[in-house]
Each structure stands twice: as C-alpha cells, then as structure tokens.
Amino acid sequence: MILDQFNLSGKVAIVTGANTGLGQGMCVGLAEAGAKVVGVARRSCEETKALIDEFHGEFTEVIADLSSTDVIPVIVEETLKAYGRIDILVNNAGIIKREDAINYTMEDWDAVYKVNQKEVFFLCQAVAKEFIKQGEGGKIINVASMLSYQGGIRVPAYTASKSAILGLTRALANEWAAHNIQVNAIAPGYMATNNTTQLRGDEKRSEEILDRIPAGRWGTPADMQGTVVFLASHASDYVNGFTIAVDGGWLAR
Hints:
Layout: E1 12-16, H1 21-32, E2 36-41, H2 46-53, E3 58-63, H3 72-83, E4 88-91, H4 106-134, E5 138-143, H5 156-176, E6 181-188, H6 197-201, H7 203-212, H8 225-232, E7 243-246
Parallel strand pairs: 1-2, 1-4, 2-3, 4-5, 5-6, 6-7
Helix pairs in contact: 1-8, 4-5
C-alpha cells in the first residue's frame, strides 16, 4: 500500500536546530511517522521531547554548538550510541544576521557561513560515510530558503549561504546517488519562527510580505512536516537533488 511507503518505523533521524521552530516541527513529524529522532541544538530540547513523549515517540537530544565542526563526530557517535544506526539527516540549524551590505562585517559573514554552509557540508559528509558503511543508503534533507532563489534585503551572508545550500544539494546528489543516498532540500517560505521575529514585528514589512503570499498567512512549523516525512521516506526514493518550496505560493506570485 502506498501509505506504507511513508512509514519511518525503525529509521533513525538526526535533526539539527531541534529545540524550537521549524526543527522542532520536523522532529515531531518524523517521530509521528515512526522514526527515532536525535535532536541537536545549542540549548535543551526539553520542549521538543515533551511534544514527542505525548504520543510515546522516541527522542534523544545532543547538545552541541554548530558554529564549530568539532561537534560533528560527537553528533554521529551519540546517535550510534543511542540507536545503533543513522538513516536520515535533516540539516535545519541556521543563523541570520541583518545589516546593510555596505556595513556588513567579516565577523558576521564568517559566523553565518560557518553554521549555514560549512557545518552542513561536513555533517553531510560524516553521515554519508555512515550510510555507505551501513550499505543501505540513506536520506539527507537540507533546509534552504526563499533566499536560495532571491536576493533579499540586508542579509547578504544568509542569502549567499542559502544559495550555496541549493547548489550543494545538487552536487552531493550527483556524487552519492550511486550509494542509494538521496540528497534533497526544503525551501521554507516566510515562517513564524525566531528568525522572523524582527520582520513580523515590523507592521509595514509584515503587511508587504503577507500581501505577496497567496496563502495569506505566515507558515508554521507544522507546514514542514509532510514534506520532510516524504523526503525522509521510501516514497521519495527517485527524487534526488531537488529543492521543494514550502512557501504558501510565494515563488509563484
């Protein structure tokens, strides 16, 4: 039956940025589909765990600062220690620093790029090595952005890093398809999360954004769940190197 293709029972998923927002929503969705979830974040994932405990799902947290690649072996080791394997990686963690491009500092540029691009690549690499060792393939899902397609305003490093994610997703898909590893991405639209607090607090800018979204509302973490489960499941085994927009129709306008 087709619905069986979406069942993630027995699968182990790593989700970065798991303590809040989109990461939290995707953790819950993956767990509801049957996956054992390892949530990675700088701060406690207690709230995420509580949501998953409500339906007796399985969740383990790994506290790690993703501004350093030194934590990557720890994430992999803790996941294997907890559940013995890895089947799914969701690279969701990201940061944004807003400033006019003319005033943007090297420090802010490097901070954004370390988390949004460098960390993503090397975590993909580390997990892909486990997939290859396990010999059963795997799923990598990167979180891109509307700014993978557009320039944005006052976010040059974020735009550059998320544009890189779109390209990196394609590149890794090309190289790792032979190992039955599918690498895809999700490009969220304007979502009601911590990253958009400043935008939503600006009444004029918020109204401009909502006027362009055909759905007429900001997205929510729950809006990510169906797409991440699809890309993590056997239902997407012939989908590779593609970025799916979950944007309420923003790109269609």
